[in-house]
Amino acid sequence: MSEQIEKALEEIRPMLARHLGNIELVNVENGTVYVRLLGTCHGCPLSQLTLKAGVEDLLRQRVPGVTSVEAI
Question: Domains (ranges, CATH) in the chain?
């Protein structure tokens, strides 16, 4: 599952990089994907929108078993 998640995150990274940000996979546990937002994404007021409407939606579509994404 981690490999599939990393592959999907590679699709998201160029969008984040345009805003000088990035995302890192930290852990996967019981369908929840834990990520770390890096660069300008860390602390950005729109980071939760990016996380839920962007990252979580994509991962739920592409990776069977993913139920949610949480930033740590």
Answer: 2-71 (3.30.300.130)
